Amino acid sequence: MRLDSSAIQTFEDQASGQLNDDLTNTIGWFSQLDGWAALPNGDVFITWWQDGYHGPFPRPPMRWVQGQWIQYDPPLPSGWFTDDVFVQDDQHIWFSAFSYFADSAAAVSLDDNNTPTDLTDDTWNVFYAGEVFPSSVAVDTIGRVWLGSHTGLYLYSGDSWQPIVQNEDVCELVPAADGVLLALLCGDNSNVIIIDEAGNHVVSNVYTLAREQLDLLRSTTRPNEKWAVAPDGGIWIRWNSWPTDGLRRYDEEGGRDYPAPVDNITNVVAGPDNRVWFTADGVLWRLSPKPDFDLSAIEGVWPATPDSEVSYRFPLRAVDGFNLPVTLEAAGLPPEITASFAPNPVIPGSTVTMTIGTSPAATPGSFPAPIQASSDAISHTLDTTIAVFPEAQPLWLPLLRVGD
Predict the structure, then answer these.
(1) For the chain, what percentages of helix, strand and coil (3-state, to nearest 5) are there?
(2) End-to-end distance of the chain based on CA atoms, in angstroms?
(3) Rounded distance between C-alpha atoms, residue 354 and residue 339, angstroms
(4) Which of 108, 177, 110, 117 minimizes the C-alpha distance to 147?
(5) Model pLDDT for residues 327-356, shown as the tens digit of each residue
(6) What sign results for the dihedral spanned by CA atoms 236, 238, 240, 245?
(7) 179 three-state secondary structure
(8) Residue 403: how many CA atoms within 13 Å on its side-chain side?
(9) Cis peptide preceding 291, ω within 30 of 0
(10) Which of 177, 231, 304, 321 is the right S-S partner for 16, CB 3.0 to 4.6 Å?
(11) Same domain, yes or no, for 318 and 177?
(12) pLDDT category of residue 152 using cuts at 50, 70 and 90
């Protein structure tokens, strides 16, 4: 399925709670995008179509690298074009390809020899698949090559393609852990075919997978239209409801619904702090949490010795631009142990110094010291421990060893 588009942009969310400080950069204009994939370093691969007098026609694949677009020339017969693109790793890229009359297909591999701007040392291989109308290509985690089509799913084995799933309209292929492949069906909002390492396959749906096989979905890395994996392991799924669509998040605590103010949600991308981006009817939307602060950077155990004073530093992180003062307190300590914070109150985004003081009467042991943080109507508590040792032991580490 081609996605109508006029531009490709990079978007940098500043996580400030505002929208007017986010950074965008237009890196290219194209008539219609067909497939795309991105590398962690920011490189982008696309397959695309160009508008023409008699309608759109396919163009060669391209890559955005080092601030420029480069065009590839796969060794395909005349009248063949690339469709989907899959990034196996930084060096190995795969494309699905088809003839102009859609009477034959292939999977095409590119090894760029880790020199993306030098096309002279590229290695191409073409694996022809016969009369298969392709929709997606992928390589699973154990190195097997798969081709999805509108007539089923095919595995390259030996020197030929073997049908694994037949009479199914497969649109997307998403590798998971342990050689498992997830085949997403066209025009279906929930059903997924699960193919294991042995080639056995069952049909499930994304909601059942999120409830019962959360780790399987978490092991996927290829963006797709059915779910998105957040950095904290949460799974975000678009779901159809009335009167509007919405999002659903799954984690160990179960599922939670987030109704949306729009319909036709697509292209869900999950970021940190439950910030989720999606498109709906050609508009980019963001779901973000209420502004807050985060104590997760604070250590769980604080060492000390009797009759001493020791200081530790930690950041108090702001979430979504939270900028109100936060008051900190370590509760429940015996009188022989004190804990103070500076500055206090503190504005999130700053570094806090925690000073632990012990009297000569402090006895060795572990003492619960839950840190209570409060600001306006928001409060959080983090369980920490002050561990009092009889004495501090020096730790000697070798810096340089000369000879044997």
Answers:
(1) 5, 50, 45
(2) 65
(3) 7
(4) 108
(5) 999 999 999 999 999 999 999 999 999 999
(6) positive
(7) helix
(8) 0
(9) no
(10) 321
(11) no
(12) very high
| Residue among 201, 206, 270 nearest 234 (CA) | 270
**Tokens standing for residue 366:** 């572990």
C-alpha–C-alpha distance, residues 110 and 85, integer Å: 11
CA torsion angle 63 68 69 75 (round to 10): -70
- Three-class secondary structure assignment of 289-316: CCCEEECCCCCCEEEECCCEEEEEEEEC
Q: Is the dihedral of CA 113, 116, 118, 124 positive or negative?
A: positive
Instruction: Collapse the DSSP code of 247 into the 3-class scheme (helix H, G, I; strand E, B; otherwise coil) and give the result.
Output: strand
Measured from the Cβ of residue 170, the count of other Cβ atoms closer than 10 Å reads: 23
122, 112 contact by CB (below 8 A): yes
Looking at residue 243, what is its pLDDT? 66
- For tokens 């109150």, what's the residue? 345
150, 226: one domain: yes
Q: What is the DSSP letter of 362?
A: P
Residue 331 belongs to a domain with what CATH number? 2.60.40.2310
Strands 8-12 and 23-28: antiparallel
Residue 327: domain span: 292-388
Q: For the CA atoms of the chain, what is the radius of gyration? A: 27
Residue 159 burial class via C-beta count within 10 angstroms: exposed 0-12, middle 13-18, buried 19 and up: exposed
CA angle 259-261-264, nearest 5°?
90
For tokens 């962690």, the residue is 40
Strand bridging mode 385-388 / 301-304: parallel
207-265 per-position pLDDT tens digit: 999 999 999 999 999 999 899 999 999 999 988 766 678 899 999 999 999 888 888 88
Q: Are residues 270 and 359 in the same domain?
A: no
Residue 398 counted as domain residue: no
3-state secondary structure of 356: strand
> Both 91 and 152 in a single domain?
yes
Question: How many residues are given for the chain?
Answer: 404
Residue type for position 403: G
- Residues 29 and 94 reside in one and the same domain: yes
> Do 311 and 170 share a domain, yes or no?
no
Provide the pLDDT for residue 402: 60
76 φ/ψ angles, rounded to the nearest 5 degrees? -105, 155
Where do we find the tokens 């998971």?
Answer: 176
When pLDDT is averaged across residues 135-140 and rounded to a whole number, the result is 94
Q: 190 in helix, strand or coil? A: coil
Contact 367/333 with Cβ under 8 angstroms? Answer: yes
